[in-house]
């Protein structure tokens, strides 16, 4: 060929190649092929890019949408998977694989009718599609139509008798229908149909385990391990089987071998560390994760497990360093933000924790864990209203998770909200029927309602559920003590101490019984013996101080309370009793300093503000007392004692009357059985000029406490304003009768002389 001919050929080739590269059909197929190649290699990020490139060329290219959906399914991104599967079947209704994948996704999200419709669409176009037939069966089973689902699964078996998965699913339905012989036959048929099918073998092994045929289950799991040594599922199930038999050492050995055999498989090499976490062996977990983290520093899931372990061990600086690195790579990583919040809570930085966890909730409003930890942060800041709200949201988002219900139950018990306690404890029992906690909480609720028999039955269930847990025994002792059955109560407290010699609640129960029997010396000896047996413990010294007070030895009581506070500055009960004891002994300055330190250490504890304000009031420093009551109400706006006391100060020192009335109403609502709250509200009405309301409310105060001269004085003055001079005279004269040196005696005499 001459040069001119060769040149013409080159031109033709260039034109053809250029035309091909610009052909949309070719381009979208090239991108699809690249995406499929990346998907097969588990390079999902690269696969997404190629599939999206293909869709840019042809937005209605069903195969690319399906490829993208498969990536999202693999990553557990169900929302995007659903969107892409919907587009795939819209643009190509005959893509049976996509139709079935969409149906299975719909079924998993509870849309059984829509899932069945997808399956029927496939069967109309492809009547012998076994996967579609199985999807029909699954949908009916999910709708509770078990006999119908079994018949449909049998049709799937008949469609293709060589499909192992069909036998396994049929067996599962038969097992649910209590037809164990037929189920066993089909589980075994699945394996015999495909002896190398690891899923079939594992399904048979799990069946044996459920039937408590543990040796046979062990054999199947070991067979699966031999068939597929790179599969993490068989060793996980074998370890779980050993654990169920109490053979923790054998489970550990299996997982140690798995870590070595699957050193390049994240799901495999993480197993041992996850096992240690599940068993609460945090030290071992930390060693394991430290080693793995050095080998796989880019494994984010591993890093997060390591951080969680370090937090549990209170190695907060180490945890923070790793977490900061995660946040540097991705400032919106919700797990990392949650860890940051947990660390801040443990460091006593509740405000910082609330800020960062609120941002986590904003990023992931459906994250139950983020809401739960935000609740923990609010509780650490003593903002229990917000804590309850966050825990309720967490419980709503994850109704089968125990932690939010456990937190709500503890909060309800603390606040004596027995309606909430009943509800949350019942949910906790439903979630964890083999745990003692739900029964213990429920027993508290029943006991508060006077149902001692029901509470006792709950506590027996709790003891059966957790024979090594002293908590049910202690509460049984508390219940029997309240019923005055002291000998029986003592037995339960003693049993609790036998299980755990360091439980101070059991010692407190025995001490209370000693005091009921007028044996303070025995109570004191019991506490001292316990202190000699166990390491120093704040609650024991708190208890010692209370007994010393009963023995009228205020000096020793003060020393004990001081020791309790030294051991735990957050023991607010001990701080309060220490201040009260100091003030009673005349050391008011010391008591004031103690309360001030207590407020610095526990800025959200309103009782400390109120106690300090009370001391300052007695000193005549009402201005600073007012400030403290206001601070208490900033922490807890509906705290009744602070509202009542602030209202009274405002009335007596020229404050805003309308504000004082509102505060007094808050105090009365929260303290309906305290006569002082009626007196404050009635006196507020008096200042407001609502004299009839004042009389009615002050009558309640006098009725509740007929010997209080203040109440009679206030009522007499209110009667005088309503022109009921006879009743005014009676109340004011009685005031002077019971308190001749009453501070307002001169004013009373003046009013009496004017009403003659």
Molecular structure report:
The protein is mostly helical and 756 residues long. The protein contains 45 helices and no strands. It is elongated, with a radius of gyration of 37 Å.
Brief overview, please?
By secondary structure, the chain is mainly alpha-helical.
User: Which range best describes the helical content: under 10%, 10-25%, 25-40%, 40-55%, 55-70% or over 70%?
Assistant: over 70%
For the sheet with most strands, the description reads: none
Mean pLDDT: 90
Strand content: under 5%
**Regions with little confidence, pLDDT below 50 for 5+ residues:** 1-20
CA-CA gap between termini: 143 Å
The tally of beta strands, per DSSP, is 0
Helix-strand category: mainly alpha
Question: Which characteristics define this entry?
Answer:
mainly alpha; 79% helix; disordered N terminus; 756 residues
What is the element layout, followed by pairings?
Blueprint (H helix, E strand, L loop, with lengths): L2 H20 L1 H17 L3 H14 L4 H14 L2 H14 L4 H13 L3 H14 L4 H13 L3 H14 L4 H13 L3 H14 L4 H13 L3 H14 L5 H12 L3 H14 L4 H4 L1 H8 L3 H14 L4 H13 L3 H14 L4 H13 L3 H14 L4 H13 L3 H14 L4 H14 L2 H14 L5 H12 L3 H14 L4 H13 L3 H14 L4 H13 L3 H14 L4 H13 L3 H14 L4 H13 L3 H14 L4 H13 L3 H14 L4 H13 L4 H14 L4 H14 L2 H14 L4 H13 L3 H14 L6 H10 L2
